[in-house]
Amino acid sequence: MSNRNVIVFLSAYSYLSNPHFFSVAPKLNEYTTIFLDVKDPVSTAFNKAYYQNKELILSYFDIFHELEELPFDIGKSITKWEKIKKFKVFKKYKEMIETYLNKINPYAVVSCSDLNTSDMIASHWCKKRNRPFIILQPAIVFDKRKKNYGIKHKIKYLVVNRLLGIPKYKKQPIFGNEATWGYLFLWGEEFVLNANRGNTYFVGNPAYDDLFNAFAEDRTIKNNILICTDHLAEISSTLNQKVIKMYIEAIKARTNLNFYLKVHPREPLEDYERIFNKKEYSNVKIVRDYDLIELYNICDVLISVNSTVLLDAAAMGLPIITLNPNNEFKFVDHFREKVNIKVIKAENLAKAIDLALSDDYWKIFLERREKYFNQRFSSSDGQSGERVAKKIKELILQCEIKG
Predict the structure, then answer these.
(1) SS3 286
(2) Which residues does 88 contact at the CB level (< 8 Å), separation at least 6?
(3) Is-contact 35 100, C-beta < 8 A?
(4) What is d(CA 303, CA 323) in angstroms, rounded to the nearest whole number?
(5) Whole-prediction pTM value?
(6) Three-state SS for 183?
(7) pLDDT tens string 205-258
(8) CB atoms within 10 A of CB 55
(9) Going from the N-terminus, what domains does the chain have, and what CATH number goes with each?
């Protein structure tokens, strides 16, 4: 017998999932909501102090439960013994999650992915018991069909996952298509990666509710510019240096402005502190573990390459500038100059900042912003969290009726 009053939220990729969870969980006040800190390798590696802060999480959830942190990073699996140790870690991890789920016996599990190890474990647990496994879109998602796994990976999946029951490998790389029995909640139709997948709902972006609700058509210029880095070095160190050169040229050209440089969670803070030293760049403040909403509140414009924060900022009402030196970066252009100012040459960035700060452009931006979000994200009404909560309740009832 399930506990219909309990809903579990999995913390995998918490730096992406938590803003969505914080918007949805308070709307489920007739249920007991549990934040399960699954201690996945990604979340524990970056910004753990903020994103797994128990006091913060308990301001949104009824219960915070954390699993034991396991050593997933055992060597490089060079020797057979190291491989065996890794398999044992994954097996223990599976047992920990299943034991907890069996103990509390929730009626629904919510996550922001179906590709993480904890997601694979929980989704199969739900499938066996006819419980809703709900997948909230956490960020911009891509079609990775070109990266379909080869025969070697498929054999590993068959042997390790299916025969040994150890959830180490994914059967495919596409978000929302690993646990096809789960319920997929997308921001809008544009993010459909598999038109044949059932159980798909368009709810908008819950993480943007507070941003939409904080938006105001009147603004006061503060002369503060926000730059968010993108961890581009893992793609190309050469192109990363070209982007940094663009930052430097604009900062030197506009000494009358203050620049907040927000470093990506997966980048070394020290690298930027060395480049933008206080003596030479007195108008630059470098931050990393800093609340983005606070930065949006004190800044007038956001500059980045292709980060999700560009969408966040535009939702809250900041004009956005996207960078692509000489159009050398090959990535999906999410904005297509419909809501952004695009800069491809370093010498044009300072002028783009001036444009973004102007009253004439502000009027253009307001019109473009509303049209962009209503078309791409189903809505800009700030009610996505409510829609998600309502649909979760409906799914719980449906599964209960089916028995």
Answers:
(1) strand
(2) none
(3) no
(4) 7
(5) 0.80
(6) strand
(7) 999 999 999 999 999 999 999 999 988 776 678 888 999 999 999 999 999 999
(8) 7
(9) 3-205+380-402 (3.40.50.2000), 212-376 (3.40.50.2000)
Q: C-alpha dihedral over 144, 147, 150, 156, to 10 degrees?
A: -70
Q: Is the dihedral of CA 45, 46, 52, 57 positive or negative?
A: negative
Place of tokens 């934040």: 35
Dihedral sign for Cα 16, 19, 20, 22, please. Answer: positive
Q: Enumerate the β-bridge partners of residue 6.
A: 32
- The rounded distance, in Å, linking the Cα atoms of 241 and 262 is 17
Tokens of 15: 């730096």
Mean pLDDT over all residues of the chain? Answer: 88
pLDDT recorded at residue 75: 46
171/157 Cα distance (integer angstroms) = 6
Gyration radius (Cα) of the chain, Å: 22
What is the DSSP secondary structure assignment for residue 69, as one 8-state letter? Answer: P
Please list, residue by residue across 139-155, b when 16 or more beta carbons sit within 10 angstroms of its beta carbon and e when fewer do: bebeeeeeeeeeeeeee
Cβ contacts of residue 231 below 8 Å, gap of 6+? 264, 266, 267
> Looking at residue 45, what is its pLDDT?
58
Q: What are phi and psi of 262, to 5 degrees?
A: -90, 115
The candidate with the shortest Cα–Cα distance to 113, out of 240, 12, 234, is 12
Ramachandran sector of residue 169 (left: φ over 0; alpha: ψ -120 to 50; beta: rest): beta
Q: Where are the alpha helices (DSSP H) in 5-70?
A: 14-24, 41-45, 48-51, 54-57
- How would DSSP label each residue in 95-130? HHHHHHHHHH-EEEEEES-SSSHHHHHHHHHHHHHT
d(CA 346, CA 16): 31
CA distance 264 to 367: 30
The crossing angle, in degrees rounded to 10, of helices 309-316 and 359-376 is: 110
Does the pLDDT at position 380 exceed 90? Answer: no
62: pLDDT confidence band, cut at 50, 70 and 90? Answer: very high
DSSP state of 160: I
Dist CA 193 CA 176 (whole Å):
8
